[in-house]
Design brief:
Two copies of one chain form a homodimer.
Chain A lengths: L1 H31 L9 H4 L1 H18 L12 H32 L8 H25 L5 H37 L14 H25 L23
Helix pairs in contact in A: 1-3, 1-7, 3-4, 3-6, 3-7, 4-5, 5-6, 6-7
Chain lengths: ~240, ~240
């Protein structure tokens, strides 16, 4: 019972932190960065942090812990499996749109792509996420997937899931840090980053919230007591058309 | 047997990646950043990445996985406990020296401290690491520590250990990214970062190695099969003077 209460406390924290991250990244880019457009201007760039934080961190993290909600354990796993795949697909689509936003902006302003460490880690994160989603679809949802493959895939899928979240957090923090150094300087007619103007405090706080959100999700994922019980474990290997309960 | 082979493969990878990180961060700062000094100059700053990567990532990661080495399982735990505490203390001292290097450099050049997101996450990481080390000493090595406290502390210590490593990786990647944007620009008489000069490739590769090292360490820590077996688990709660075997 204590374990269930502790879970719901962490889960509530995860939901609230995720919501706060989406609000804060949107406020930052609306209030201080001039809002949004899809025209190759810096306003198109503003979609990049909003879509990456919403997709690659918040939706991804919430999709990852879905199976851990005890309320779902007594129920047929199939709808939850589909919801997990659906939330992750939405997270992936938003992440890819977020990448399109920054590539379009760079191309329109003749800026090089993929040279910074942030971009190297970020592109690897999205590539691994795409690979993980396709492999998850093939292994856990397609009826032709052999049981032996699924049994092999399950621990790798869980491990890769946590690793992608770590990579997402690394990408977001290095990106927010980079953006603030680019944007907040006297030559841009703004107070420099070093003076910690309100925008810097808001964006730094967003970074801290992202890290705390990620650690709460990793805490939920790593707790053995919060895993879907063994009794239904075999079902988790059943692909879509074999889920008969 | 297969699990032991897999462990030693991961452990060897962890050792090699850690060694490569220390070599690469040293080469970067010697070859391209002008080497080291302790005089408030940019050469003093160069200690910062070297000491943080060596202490907060490589030594810390290696100290964290010490108990997982199967070779140690049949042996008295006390020497390994002392080695774990010793390696972590060395990691902590190097990290604090790394912070002193950057604070001294900033103060000498009248640059603000602790304004960037990188610095916020970095200072929290070192503070948490200090707290974790002191609490670990009090809980697991002092003879007056009550058993109930140690039992409560163990899972929190393990969880906090992994979280600090995630924070270390986040801090290092955002720091390397920030440093390259500061250093590689035409006004500094260097080729800009966007052209990916050799220094950028080396430092970006260092970042990638740090991330891979961190994921390998987290993989070792998260594998239940690689934890010191239950038989010796009670010993792990025995503080220093009660370790009688």
């Amino acid at each position: 019972m204590r374990s269930i209460v502790a879970f719901y406390f962490c889960y509530l924290l995860c939901l609230c932190l995720g919501f706060a991250c989406v609000v804060l990244v949107s406020v930052w880019n609306t209030q201080w960065r001039g809002g949004f457009a899809w025209d190759g201007s810096p306003h198109q760039f503003n979609w990049h942090p909003v879509l990456m934080v919403t997709g690659l961190v918040v939706l991804y993290g919430n999709g990852a812990v879905l199976y851990r909600v005890p309320l779902t354990w007594g129920q047929n796993k199939l709808p939850w499996k589909l919801l997990h795949a659906g939330v992750m697909l939405l997270a992936l689509v938003l992440s890819i749109l977020g990448l399109c936003a920054v590539f379009d902006f760079h191309n329109a302003s003749n800026t090089h792509n993929l040279y910074s460490l942030h971009s190297w880690i970020g592109i690897c994160t999205t590539a691994l996420f795409t690979f993980q989603w396709v492999l998850g679809l093939a292994g856990f949802l397609l009826p032709c997937s052999p049981v032996s493959f699924r049994k092999l895939l399950k621990p790798a899928h869980v491990w890769m899931g946590g690793s992608i979240l770590v990579l997402s957090i690394v990408s977001c923090i290095s990106g927010i840090n980079e953006k603030l150094f680019f944007a907040l300087k006297v030559t841009n007619n703004t107070e420099p980053y070093a003076n910690l103007p309100p925008e810097a405090v808001v964006a730094n706080s967003l970074g801290v919230l992202i890290v705390v959100f990620g650690l709460v999700v990793l805490k939920i994922l790593s707790n053995q007591k919060w895993q879907r019980p063994d009794a239904s474990e075999d079902m988790s290997y059943s692909p879509l058309l074999q889920d008969d309960n």
